[in-house]
Amino acid sequence: MSQTMLAHRDAASAKRDFRREMLRHFVAGQDALQQLRTKYPETFEAVVQRKAEQEHFLTTKSMLSTGAAIEVVQETLKETKTRYTDEVPGITTHTAEVLVHEAVADWLIRCPLDFIEKAKS
């Protein structure tokens, strides 16, 4: 198998793995959101509000970023987790982590972001 074909296969495999993990995060997060909605409606509302606030600027952020797509995703994960843990009373670190990954998975499922690729030197 040629190097080009192997690299393409590896890239395709990595994309499939990423997609599968994002779907798992989405499902786990939806489960956590349902639990919050049922048991802690005020916490649920706070999470939904923070998620909507982050999403409001995410599309523009992805278009303006000159970094790699993964950098934007990582930064968004970090920012969203900080918002959840700092601004949503009573949320555990684990639940915040689950919900952050759900949020990013949800955004990628509904609206694949438009990352401008850097020109290679």
Provide an overview of this structure.
The protein has 121 residues and is mainly alpha-helical. It has one domain. It is 81% helix and 0% strand. The chain contains 4 helices and no strands. Helix 1 (3-39) runs antiparallel to helix 2. The mean pLDDT is 83.
| Major beta-sheet overview | none
How many angstroms does the end-to-end distance come to? 29 Å
| SSE string, helices as H and strands as E | HHHH
- Whole-number tally of structural domains: 1
What's the total helix number? 4
Radius of gyration, taken over Cα atoms and rounded to an integer in Å: 17 Å
Structural class: mainly alpha
Q: Would you tell me the overall average pLDDT?
A: 83
Beta content = under 5%
SSE inventory with pairings:
Blueprint: H1 3-39, H2 41-64, H3 69-87, H4 93-110
Helix pairs in contact: 1-2, 1-4, 2-3, 3-4
Throw out a few tags for this protein.
121 residues; mainly alpha
Short summary of the structure?
With 121 residues, the protein is an all-alpha fold. The protein has four helices and no strands.
